[in-house]
Design brief:
Helices cover 41% and strands 40% of the residues. The chain has one helix at 2-46, and strands at residues 54-62, 65-75, 81-91, 97-109.
């Protein structure tokens, strides 16, 4: 009986370790996606030219990972401002976006 209890405890610890490793990987991907979104926002904010209205996609490499960046620029009720939505997702390289995701919205003055 003691051996069975020990085996169950060992299996539970192995499963817990697997969950911890998966969580750590997801956290790293999410942190990378957030960093990519913040970098893109900084570039938009510091560019004197207004961003182009519409949706644009690009691929960014950061920290040895590939990320897909989608930038959507729409006008606001105030003609002097536009809203920029950034969505970043880790790109597996097969067109499938998984793992870390980040979303960031900012308002930029255009006039």
């Amino acid at each position: 009986i003691a051996l069975a209890v020990f085996a169950i405890a060992a299996l539970a610890l192995l499963r817990l370790d697997g969950v911890a490793v998966a969580t750590a990987g997801d956290l790293a991907a999410r942190s990378g996606a957030t960093l990519v979104a913040q970098n893109a926002a900084a570039l938009i904010e510091t560019d004197p030219a207004p961003p182009t209205l519409g949706t644009a996609t690009s691929s960014v490499s950061n920290g040895g990972r590939r990320f897909a960046l989608r930038q959507t620029v729409v006008p606001t009720g105030d003609a002097r401002l536009v809203r920029v939505d950034l969505l970043v997702a880790e790109d597996s390289g097969v067109g499938d976006r998984r793992g870390g995701r980040a979303r960031l919205t900012l308002i930029k003055r255009v006039q």
